[in-house]
Amino acid sequence: MPDTVSARHLLRGAAKRSAKGQSGSLAPRWGSTSSLLFKHMPMKTFLAATLMASAGACTNGVSGDRSTNLQQPGAAGNASDDSHANANAVAPDLNAKLDSRLFLLVTTAVALPTIAAILQWQLADPQARVGLHLGLKMLSMAVSLAISLLTWNTRRGQPTNFVLAGFGHFAIAILGGLEMLIVAITPGATFADEGPLPVVLQLSADGAAVAAMMAAALGPSSLARTRSIRVGSALAAAWVAISLCVELTASRWLPSIARTGALIEMSLAFVALFAAWLFARRYRRGEAAFALLSTAALLAGIGIAFGADLPLGDLSKGLFSRMFKVIAWLLVYRTLFKEGILAPWHKLVETGRAVEEDRKRYRQLFETAPDGLLLVDSNGAIVDANPAAAAMFGWPENSLTGLQIEALVPQQLRTSHAHERSNYFSDPHTRSIGEARLFSGARRNGESFPVEVALVPQSFSGGNTTLCIVRDVTERHGLEQSLLCLALQDPLTELPNRRHFHDSVEKAMAHAERHGSTLALLCIDLDHFKHVNDSLGHSYGDELLRQVASRLKNALRGGDLLARMGGDEFALLLLDAGIDDAAAVAEKVLGALSLPFVHAGRTMKVGASVGITISPADARDVEEMMSNADLAMYRAKGQGRNTWCFFEQRMTERARERALLQQDLVNAIKRDQFALEFQPRVKACDGQLIGFEALLRWHHPDHGKVSPEKFIPLAEESGQIVAIGEWVLRESCKQAMQWQLQSEKDLTMSVNVSTHQLRHHSFVAYVKRVLAETGWPPTQLELEITETALMEDPREAADRLHQLVALGARIAIDDFGTGYSSLAYLKDYPLHRLKVDRRFVQELDANRSDRVIASSIIQLAHALGLQVTAEGVETLQQSEILKEHQCDEFQGYLFSAPISSTACEAWLPKLAHCDAPG
After folding, report:
1. Rounded to an integer, what distance in angstroms lies between the CA atom of residue 549 and that of residue 552?
2. Following DSSP, what letter does each residue of 775-815 receive, concatenated?
3. What confidence tens digit (pLDDT) does each residue in 65-94 have?
């Protein structure tokens, strides 16, 4: 092989052969590579190659899209550690410092070998070189010892593979110390001439280092157990013992320890490089700690390789080898320190903050609870009280603490209350509100008032206490008294009114909660009742309500409660009813109301929409339950009326999400959250590209990719569609102009226009302005408008379209066939193209009706001089059928899904040489 072969080529070839597993020719190839590297290649060339390799590996190890957070011990595979992510969120400054230190280490990996080369060149005195080498060796041994001590102190929280690596460094420290000891007691020795003792120790230390790396690369990432800790320590001790035995006997069976040691060192260097590849592979799978270890393995391999060309006992020539090893061990120490110390510390900090937040949250709940909360000890003393309790009993805030509980009881009842309290604390038990009789409380001014009390035993280190939940029922009692005086029935239908129904539901929910039963509430709203009032008069409407009430009562089960809530709305409470029972009753209700109603010779027909909610699954209080039933009822109306629908939690979540999305939509353009995708349009005859349709996409930072079907209506409601439409038009024309300059051929850009955009008074003006700013030819702009947009105000739409055509723009009708049935606009409006909706294309090969509709649209368009584009073409059979009916253009997944602007550039060579058909 020529002497001019580059170091990078040799290293790459060796790495490829190692990765392919060419075990048969491994030793000869390694030997030849070593010879070329260290005999025929200048040392400066090799130094430059290794520096580039170390710098590149360090950069690749810590950069990119992957997080540098460490994986939690015990997590396997690609699973990420949420607790570590939270910890990094808690202490970002500390992580920033550590990442900056890592950058310094990587920089040192490049800088220090260069400094060592300068020192070696400057230090002419061999003893000075020896001193420098010994200093580096002592530093390497100290770092290895630090790694082993760190591993021992964090052995219960480290993964098994890191524990094994740590014990391997314990062996490295012991062997390095022994080698230093031999140097100390053998002054002036050159060990290459006087025996293999230090050589074997160095080889053993390097072997222990490579073994530690392989253990970390191949070992399991599960949490270390006692057995693995014992195995690691035993292996480290065994390695040291075997090394000492080999040291004492090596001279008897190794004729040339230096030459053999060089081959061993070269082999260990390649194994270390292989370990670096393994670390990088695990890092790509999501185990981020291995980014640092891959760099450490690479540097260690380079350091070992530097020693392979030297007489292993020549201490004055090993500066490069020792320098790389020191840096590698520092990276290993940083990895294990972050895994064993920082990650648990972050987790501890996060846990402490969570505990503090919980304490504050529970205290806030205690302070803001609407009911009075009193914490009472076994002697009757009030330990704590919330502001609601102080306000309830008329005491200043924080003044109840230390009082006897009997101070809150009327004077004549205090003796009996003390006796009951003593009995309760002898056998404390939980008592809910409503389980016992009403009690009387006494305000500070002596006024008595009725209360309900719940008792919850509490156990703390200070002794047993009881939480008393006191509810003032004065208002409820007053309400109950007023209800006795008021009519409990609706005067028109003789059904319970809203107030009566509300109280009944509240009592029923309390009863159901105590006994673990379920309730169903049905909200019934008549369909088209207003039409009866408006057309026949209110007297007929009143009679209809009376007949509806009569039919509904006949459809009820015994014990169920029917009420008129007001207007044409009724409510039905089903006791001890589940989902199946509620659905059956809803069907009976719809059946009872399906027959016509007759009054004074006139027939009246109405249906009903029924919303159903179940307690306690859907709600815990009356208001929430009735609100849920209303939501379900409106959903039933939205599904076509005369049906029933159960409440779902996502109804309220959807309403909340819709409001938040509408707020975020306001700043979406400023925050650069919008993007365009483009779908090619091709000629039906030969598949050549004609142009693209621009499609808007919203990449929300929290919700990801938001569907246009979700955010376009929101933009129209909020008025943002005008600004968004102008942005889409400008970006589409700008992008199309770039493509046309690249291909030097004409193409058509299609842009969708909403109803609100077309009706906006400045729509034509901003189209003209965008065309002028971007330089895009108006004749190559096609605006796609729906039938609905045209028919909302036909005269205004016609004026807008004529103005746009006067500019040179082309007009296409999108989703043709799915809007208004009137075809008058086809002859009145200046149109150029019809786009057949995908619903008529998807089943062309299986549905004869779709084929007839598609064929009719194509024939109609051609008869009027219009071009036709078929949307949603996904199969060859669909395209062949459309070709048979002379469809002009295709657009769909058969040719391409909507793609990014970069991906569209691959289509430009397919652009038709002629202009798009007119």
Report:
1. 5
2. ---GGGEEEEEEHHHHHHSHHHHHHHHHHHHHHT-EEEEEE
3. 333 333 333 333 333 344 334 333 334 444
